[in-house]
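Throughout our pipeline, every protein is held as a single compact record rather than as scattered files. The record that follows is passed on verbatim for readers who wish to inspect the format.
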Amino acid sequence: MEWKYDPATNRYTRYTAGEFHKDRNNDKPVEATNIIVQFVKTESPDGRLLNMDLLGSGGALVFRDGEMINATWKKEEDTKRTRFMDDDGKDIELNAGQTWIAFLPTDRDITYE
């Protein structure tokens, strides 16, 4: 999976296997104005299913306006929203529009330019 930023629209378009990913409902490209990569603790008790720990805190990367922000995420309860904070502990303001959150195990790396 890959996201490409278009400065003219200030959106990210999702690509899979080198081609843009189409929405099955309208055949248009999948786009987002914010991309968040949330690193979470995982375990695979049976070798097939992957359990993700979405409560607590950890590292994250927020992509907005063509830039990457190092972030920390925090979620205290199932009924509370996940907060994404910058290095100073302030909530990161996201652009209006669609936000895509990708959960990645803490032992995975991503590449970005």
